[in-house]
Amino acid sequence: MDRRLLRDNGRVAHVSLKGQVEAQSFVESTPQSVGWSELPIWNAPGGAIDRTLLFGDIFHVLEAGPGFAFGYAGHDGYVGYVDANGLFDLPGEITHRVKARLTQALDKPTLKTSGEHIPLSLNSGLHVTDDSDPKWAEIAMPTGRRFVPKVHLRPEAAPETDPVAVAERFLGTPYVWAGNHARGIDCSGLVQISCRACDIPCPGDSDQQEAALGETLTSGTPPKRGDLMFWKGHVAWVSDSETLLHANAFHMAVAYEPLNAAIARIKAQGDGPVTRHARLIAAR
Q: 240: part of which helix (H) or strand (E)?
């Protein structure tokens, strides 16, 4: 009955919960597409931010109110409220994903344009409507057609294979609590966006990730690239046997840190020892 996964707010609940919870009505969800560069998930209308959705993400609406929508994210089931103005009808199936840390959707297929530049983070989902130009892909957006450099895209059917390599593209990105975006990201956001790019199912928060991801390794197992280290409230990638890569409040950015030094620092600041060392199970 974790609130983050419980599709119920007391007024409405998903039909799958009938007989399990009390609600005024039980409804099917209506899937809509995120049409903004980033869309926060709130714990209440206009409240604290829990996580952030990207352009092209699906949000299943259970209730629409004045300025908000209650529902859950399609990729990980995270439940909460979003600004309803950021949701739109589905433009078509996702055909491509942004693979660069950050790209721009332009109003014309040329570098020299003074029109609106719309930022799109890594893993934003796009519906390409025309890829005949050798350099530019035409995409569907709520404001009309836009153009993205082809070199920044990958086909939806061709996921990446190294989540750490994906995470490394975020080096220097500012640390932002509940961020999942190239303009600001937190520790669990970095893990999730890296896993999603590799088609590895991954929940949103670090405690959920600790419970769900990979195989637990015994104490003293030599770490290797792609492992995950967990603490209470924190998670980090192992970049190599001696180095972590993580979004953290110490550096206020995504940064490398010597593994043993990080373990000592985190324990000394009062956040305790490593609670789990895990090795991912390949999705494919």
A: strand 234-240
Q: How far apart are CA 207 and CA 12, in angstroms?
A: 27
Determine the Cα–Cα distance for residues 178 and 5; give it in Å rounded to an integer: 16
Q: What is the pLDDT of residues 1-44, one digit of tens each?
A: 899 999 999 999 999 999 999 999 999 999 999 999 999 999 99
Q: Which residue has the tokens 């500012």?
A: 174
Is 216 within 8 Å of 276 (Cβ atoms)? yes
- Which of 120, 93, 95, 89 has the alpha carbon at shortest distance from 106? 120
Q: Is the pTM higher than 0.90?
A: yes
**Extended strands (E) in 66-135:** 68-73, 79-83, 87-88, 96-98, 102-105, 118-121, 125-126, 128-130
User: What gap in Å lies between CA 125 and CA 226, rounded to an integer?
Assistant: 24
Rounded to an integer, what is the distance from CA 190 to the centroid of its chain? 8
Structure tokens at 151: 């070199």
| Beta strand segments in 76-167, E | 79-83, 87-88, 96-98, 102-105, 118-121, 125-126, 128-130, 136-141, 144-149, 153-155
CA–chain centroid gap for 38, Å, is 10
Burial 155-186 (b: 16+ CB within 10 A, else e): ebeebbeebbebbbbbeebebbebbbbbebbb
Question: Do you know the residue count of the chain?
Answer: 284
Cα separation, 234 vs 21, in Å, equals 32
Please write the tens of the pLDDT for every residue from 256-283.
Answer: 999 999 999 999 999 999 999 999 975 4
Cα gap 130→148, rounded to integer Å: 11
**Using one digit for the tens of pLDDT, what is the confidence trace for 233-262?**
999 999 999 999 999 999 999 999 999 999
